[in-house]
Amino acid sequence: MDDLWLETAGYCYTYQKGATRNVMQKTILITGCSSGIGLCAAETLQKRGYRVFATARKESDVAKLREKGFDSFMLDMDNSDSIRQALAQVLAQTGGTLDALFNNAGYAIPGAIEDLSRDLLRQQFETNVFGPMELINLVLPIMRKQGHGRIIQNTSILGIVAIPYRGAYNASKFALEGFTNTLRQELRKTNLSVSIIAPGPISSQFRENARKNYEETLKEKESLHKTRYQKMEETLTNTSASEKKLTLQPDAVVAKLIHALESPHPKARYYVGLPAHLFALLRRLLPDYALDWIINKSMKESND
Question: pTM of the prediction?
C-alpha cells in the first residue's frame, strides 16, 4: 500500500513511502505574542502541528517571532487599520480561512479610580476591550462561511472579582467577560465555539509592564494614595515568596487553550491556578462586603 491515512487529534496525515505530509493543518491567529502566555502558546501550538500566525504590536518583536519560524505580522489592538491589515495578511496565506482566534493581548494601567483620567481609561479599553471586539467581528463572517471556528479569550480572575488600585484593568476585564458571554449565547446554534480562559497569577512580563505604566502615568502625580502607591510599586517590582508559590508558568494557560481548541466539547470557561478557582468560588458564595474584607486582608498581607 503506497498511502496510509491516519486521523488523529483533528489532523489528517498521509504516510507515503515513509514520508510524512500534513494535508489538513489547523490555523490560529494569536495576539500579544511578544512574551509570556502569547509566546508560549505560539511555540506550543506550532509544535503540535498548527500553522500559527503570531502577532505583536512592535516591529522588533515581529522580527524576533519571524526568526523563530512563525508567520508573524504587526497587530496593534489600538489601531483599526493595523487589525484589518494583519487579518488580511493571514487570510491571504490561508486562502481566506481561519480555524481559531486566541485574543491574548492586554496590559494593565494601575492606579486609584480617582487618579485615572478619561484618556487613561480609554487607552486601557482600546487594547483590552475594543480591539478584541473589533477583531472578533472581522473574524466571525469568515468562520460562519467556512462553517466552523473557535474563539478563545484570555481574560483574568480580575474579570470576576475586583481588587483595589486595578480599577481600569478590572473594568476592562469585566467588560471582556460580559461581551464574550453574550457572544457565546448568540452563537449557540452555530458550529462556532467561544471560550474564556481566566488565569490567576502567571509568570510573565505583565507586572513589569504594569510598573512601567505606573511610572509613566501616576508616579509623579500628587495623590492621596501616594503611600499605597509606594507599596504597590514594590509588589510590582518584587514578588513575595507567598506569591511565587501561587504563580504558575504560562504553559498552565496553554494547557487550557489546547483543550478549548481540540476538545469536541470545549468548556465555556477555564480557570487557571488556585487563586482563580478560589476567588471564583468565593464570588459565588459570599456577600460583597465579606469578599471585600478577604481581598483587602490578602493584599495587606502581601504588602507587609
Answer: 0.86
